[in-house]
Specification:
With 121 residues, the chain is mainly α. 46% of the residues lie in helices and 11% in strands. It has five helices and two strands, in the order H-E-H-H-H-H-E. Helix 1 runs parallel beside helix 5. The longest helix has 18 residues. The relative contact order is 0.21.
Length: 121
């Protein structure tokens, strides 16, 4: 599926919002975390939005009651890319994985956004 020595895997999609791509990304991400030890996921998303998601995923006590609540703070362009059941399922899985690691910083999965179009909001 992924070359054995790969330390970085880039996942693209030819359309935003296509369920099949999100399903494949969810399955591949789980494989990379469980079988290959990957611990950082970078998304084509605004970094302030995903920063809040990362806080929820990496802390035992979160300011948000759920992944869906953390995602609900994303407004405007692109929110459909993250507020869908495939993404929610993946992020809930990451939250459970991190809890199983007792939120140890060297063992958990981090999620970051790499877009900076809204850096000053």
């Amino acid at each position: 599926m992924v070359p054995g020595r790969a330390e970085v895997v880039l996942l693209g999609e030819c359309t935003h919002g296509t369920e099949e791509f999100y399903h494949l990304r969810r399955q591949l991400t789980k494989h990379l975390v469980l079988e290959r030890g990957f611990r950082a996921i970078l998304l084509e998303a605004e970094w302030p939005d995903i920063f809040n998601i990362n806080v929820h995923l990496t802390k035992a006590r979160s300011p948000y009651p759920s992944v869906a609540a953390a995602l609900a703070q994303i407004q405007g362009h692109g929110k459909h890319m993250w507020q869908n059941h495939q993404t929610i399922d993946l992020l809930e899985w990451i939250k459970k994985f991190n809890a199983s690691q007792e939120y140890r910083p060297d063992s958990i999965v981090y999620v970051f956004g790499i877009d900076c179009q809204q850096i000053y909001r």
